[in-house]
Amino acid sequence: MKSLILQMYFDDANPKNRATHTAFVAPSLTTYSYLNPAYRVYTIDGNYPGSSFTVIDEENYWANLTEVNANDKLEFKLEYNKRQDYNMKDLSPASFHDLLMRMLKDETLLDKYITHFYRNTKQVGECDAACRKKFICDAMTGEAGKEDIFCAGL
After folding, report:
1. Which domain holds residue 123?
2. I need a surface site. Which of 31, 32, 52, 146 has the fewest CB within 10 A?
3. Which pTM was predicted?
4. What is the pLDDT along the chain (154 residues), one digit of tens a residue?
5. DSSP 3-state assignment of 10?
């Protein structure tokens, strides 16, 4: 339902170990309450001998339903490029883990993540300290039911 979901996986399901995987969860074109429709374009290291087939870039597009209804015209606009907007060297698990660690210390970066998470809606309420911690915790916890392990010390 959300636009930007980040989920990390670690060796032996321990966040102190190496980040091994990231779940790429795309947004929905469905217009849920308070959410604008969105879609994502992934650029993959392509179809050639020796290709890694890894995700090398990601762009998210969205439509502002308030504008659509006012103008009677559906137009999708680039919302963000993940590597550029989050200053990531690549889209590897290590870079995603680095992003999460930076969000712990940089409120502006976390605000950007939360805005993108809700597809730029202005109708979502304020996010207090517990709410902000939950965003980081949810992203650190790729495995359901292990919040006590992944969120300890956040």
Report:
1. 5-150
2. 52
3. 0.85
4. 344 577 888 888 777 788 888 888 888 888 777 788 999 999 999 889 999 999 999 999 999 988 999 999 999 999 999 999 999 999 999 999 999 889 989 999 998 988 888 787 666 677 888 888 888 888 877 777 777 777 777 7
5. strand
- DSSP string for residues in 43-54: EE--SSTT----
Residue among 11, 2, 18 at smallest CA distance from 143: 11
- What is the domain count for the chain? 1
